Amino acid sequence: MTRWKGFLIGFMLICASLNGNAQGEHATLYSQPVSGDATVAAAKELHLEMPIMCREWHIWWGAPYGKDAYMPQWQHWQGLRHYGIFDQSKTIEQTVPGLAWRRNLNCTGYPLLGPYDSGQRDIIRWQLQTAKNAGLECLNIHLWPSIWDNGLDMTPIHIVDIAFEVAEELNYPIALHDEIMFRDPKISKGRELQNCIRRTVSILKRYQESPALYCIDGMPFYYLQNWNNWISATDMAVYVAAVEEAVGPVYWIVEGGDNAILEIPQIKAYAGSHVDWFLHTPPYGAEPHPWDKLTELMKAAADTARAHGKKYVVNIKPRFNNTNARGESGRGVISGDDGMFLIKALKQAKELDPDFIILAQWNDYEECAFIEPAWDFDGFNGDPYRYCRIVAASMDKDFIPAPLPNRECLDPLIRPKLFSTPGKGDCGPVLQNVTLKKNTLRWTFAKEGSAPESLRVIQNKLPQWIPGDTTFRKQPLQLANGASMGDGVLTGGKEELRFYLPGMVMKEDATVWVGIQFKAPEGTETFVNYRSVHENYRIDSRWERRHADDRSGCRRSMSDGSELAWFPLYGARFNGTEGDIILRLSGKKERTEILRVIVWHPELNELGFPTHPVSTKIELPNKPQSEQPLVVCAYDSLGNPGLPVVLIPK
Description:
Blueprint: H1 2-18, H2 21-29, H3 38-43, E1 52-57, E2 81-82, E3 85-86, E4 110-111, H4 121-133, E5 139-145, E6 154-155, H5 157-170, E7 174-178, H6 193-207, E8 215-216, E9 219-225, H7 233-247, E10 251-255, E11 267-271, H8 291-307, E12 311-316, E13 320-321, E14 333-334, H9 340-352, E15 356-360, E16 374-376, H10 386-394, H11 415-418, E17 431-437, E18 440-445, E19 454-458, E20 464-465, E21 478-479, H12 482-485, E22 489-490, E23 497-500, E24 510-519, E25 524-530, E26 536-539, E27 542-545, E28 547-549, E29 554-557, E30 563-572, E31 581-587, E32 592-600, E33 607-610, E34 617-619, E35 630-635, E36 645-647
Parallel strand pairs: 1-5, 1-15, 5-7, 7-9, 9-10, 10-11, 11-12, 12-15
Antiparallel strand pairs: 2-3, 4-16, 5-6, 8-9, 13-14, 17-18, 18-34, 19-33, 19-35, 20-32, 21-23, 22-32, 23-31, 24-30, 24-32, 25-28, 25-31, 26-27, 29-30, 35-36
């Protein structure tokens, strides 16, 4: 084992060196567990021999950056929202106090890679290699039927294609997990029997020739959940028979549901009660957990499954917490207990001698039961690979971190933390606590970010439109429909403000920021479409155009009762013609006054100041114009801009 581990570490470091010394430094730093980690030590005493896999490998995460990101917006990643109430002061476009790299995310943990785009090939490569290095038998890819198309098509299928391509390259298998259970009939026809048959036949035929499709005894593995008995035993029998008639034998595994399903001969494995049960019985996730009662339930399920000639499966969540993302206070929280909850669950599983164990979940940060490497779980001991290390140790294996993805795939904010050297395209220095009094500008630089080199202040050259400003002159921001909408009042329906930016024609995509000052009733929001090379894209079950809204960035209340929203437009490419920016209403769409629109581009330059050596105060040469927006942004030595901050001088 020691020789093999040494070979793997050496190989890993060689691969890392190909991507730069920063990769090697990261790999070396985390090649071993934290000294004295009692949980990893406890895992080494388990000596588990049955296969362990992990389900709910979610490919639904979207991020608006990356060299091959497939959607230009945040998807599933959210800013903070407690009990259903969105906190506008802590959005995903802002960072937590004191840190430059940590966005406000609506989960109790924070991914090692930062919030990422699931569709990027190198992200997928890293995930699969990491799972393989943890000793997991396979990852169960989380598939969900489209809301449209009668639930016949899985979505997003092109990401599944990429996953299988990468898995073939790594010689590491992927299992299929069809989560049709959560497609309520009110929103989808995906549960209808004939649609289930057609969908499953389609997905199995698509990948049955791939060497990366996980099989048991030559049969493709297909996983269904049935806790709510969405499908009866009678329909299940028809379903599996029809699918096998079309594609051949399938290794069906069913989690939960009526025991009558066990009478179906094609069903190969069954998963009954598991630690998730703690959430639904007193004390509802809190300790002390009723382990003895759960063991009785699990043993009964194992005996029943085996009496019907089925394999028995144990499902395990290492912890659970969805109070942030779902906002339901009554569903309970299961603490990870510094990783020891997982150890107890694995010990319990070993005593029941299951045929295999399925961990849940790989990367579901909304429910926070994830195994994927992260900076935080329900506590952090300095090892982001800790749960992968625990899983590997339970099978007498040593975990080796996989080489990081290419930095271009990662959140620009996280790159300076992961890599020791700065790179073009990283996020520049992050300013926090910015204040302006008279002509004195003060701030602090957030820690663990890019080193500051300079600061720019833009006011007079900031592109701006205000109601009534319809006179032609050489200015960079113009309203095309000023005769009908020049007063900036939107009353709902199809009304829109159509802007163009002749002074900001762009040859390449860039992230620009838009500020909208408005007065709107509660529940009415401002919404913009904007020009980009890639404007239309598929998200889950619908088409979208490139857009952003007033909730996606920062927002503050003004003294006159208006709101100032400040948010980024990712991948913008204005061409100076009508429709560069289209501003509409969303939500309740009630009467709204647009008082001001501003646009900031990182190449704008009006007043520049050095910040090296690091300074936290400058004196502007003149007092800024009162009530006129002013944007401050810091830059690093490579010219990377940080997060721009908008101020309204008084």
